[in-house]
Amino acid sequence: MLQIKNLSFSVKDDSAGKEIIKDISLEIPDGKLIVITGPNGGGKSTLAKLIAGIEKPTSGQILFNGEDITDLSITERAKKGIAFAFQQPVKFKGIRVLDLIRLAAGRRLTTADACVYLSMVGLCAREYIDREVNSSLSGGELKRIEIATVLARKSMLTLFDEPEAGIDLWSFGNLIEVFRKQREEIADRSIMIISHQERILNIADQIVVLGSGVIEKQGDKDDILPELIGTPAAVKNCQGISEGV
Amino acid sequence: MDLNNIQSYLLKEIADIDGKNLTGAYNIRSDSMSIGRQSTENIEIVSKTGVSGMDIFIKPNTVGESVHIPVVMTKSGLKEEVYNDFYIGDNADVEIVAGCGIDNCGSHDSEHDGIHRFYVGKNAKIKYVEKHFGSGEGTGKRILNPVTEVYMEEGSTCEMEMVQIKGVDDTERKTVAELKAGAKLIIRERLMTHNVQRALSDYVVSLNGDGANADVVSRGVARDDSYQRLDLKIVGNAACKGHTECDSIIMDNGNILAVPALEANNVDASLVHEAAIGKIAGDQIIKLMTLGLTESEAEEQIINGFLR
User: Fold this and answer.
1) A&B contacts, CB < 8 Å
2) What is the pTM of this model?
3) Does 3.40.50.300 match the CATH number of domain A2-90+149-172+183-238?
4) Which burial class, exposed, middle or buried, applies to B174 when counting CB atoms under 10 A from its CB (0-12, 13-18, 19+)?
5) Coil, helix or strand at residue A65
6) Which residue in chain B is spatially nearest to A105 when comparing CA positions?
7) pLDDT tens digits for range B126-172
């Protein structure tokens, strides 16, 4: 289980500090799929980076299975079972898809075993396994490879930052299927997905709406989703701006 | 062929051979002596007279054969200059594996200067692989100054993979190529320097015939206090295409000078150069750390991939 206690994060903006995450407390229980949604710039990606250790909080605590991991490095958190699928996949020169999947799995998988993860994200494994993870791949291909590497980690907690971004319509159904399977296969492991997509929100156990660095809504999917549909957050925010709020 | 431990280790590093798995034509040179040689029906290896080195004759239409000519040096203070000339017959398609490994445990410098000339016949294809490697705890330097000259006839293809793995204290590499019509040259150079090593690599590729095509890519990693200078020049004298790229990772107190140059002497010459120097991208390290690697393990993986 992941517990976030009074977490805050600020960045220096000119001379003043700008608070991106404001005193957030949240729990991600084992075996649950949590979807974090909300307007752009609301702090969703920052929250995921704080959990993965890529950013360090200004204050507050992060506990993973009861252990305080607030001061642990990215590597230490990864070894404890936290995986993170980047919103913008990183490109390399010379590192092949196979290498990346092997590094993710933490062992020398056979090519056939590695291919399974590519097939899971709808890529023809044979065509991709020896290709370099570089700019010759399209955004959608890189994104699917990113998700495949994270699946290969088989982590206790997996964070997906907008997995649908750059994925075409055909692959989207595949992606939903991947999350469904993950849910079925993992008894005590949990998934946190940052997403705006209704189809992803629809497979959540719980939905958290994050806006302006605070949790605006939180609860079971069946309670939150009907509230979200038909009440576009963007419209609300625009009204806020025009009203000077 | 009987090899001692150092010979075996060096041969494995530079040419992936153990003395038992050799097939085709070969010559193994150790401490200035040939310790094993084999010619085949289509590939003849003959010692030069007057200077140290060999003439290697590959008959026209020889397809699918290979030549291995690795060099190892295990004695400190040895300095040699070796001339190897390759005559590749028309329509041949062969692989040539060279390379030099120096183990210097002494206090004197060891130096191997290999001058390789390739005369590539019409429509012939060669793949050339050359690896340079240094080892040993001695204070004497390991120095390698290779000169590679490639003269390509019409329609020939030459793919060259030249790698300096590690442990070479000082190198001055010079590569010259002249291409006739329809010839194609692909060069992939990989250089890694560390400690206070110095590597200079100069290329001059002249595209002299219509349809000639060259793609020269050099990737380097300069660590510690090492220095690299990459000087890549393509000259277009016909309706040709040329591309050159220097791509370097700088680390620690490394120092890199990239000097790409293009010269067009024909209105239909199309030449492109790219050069980039930078440290390892932070997001690459972070990505690999999220897969459980430490920062230094991530760096090693990124460099190994880059120099693959």
Assistant:
1) 58
2) 0.86
3) yes
4) middle
5) coil
6) B291
7) 999 999 988 888 888 999 999 999 999 999 999 999 999 788 999 99
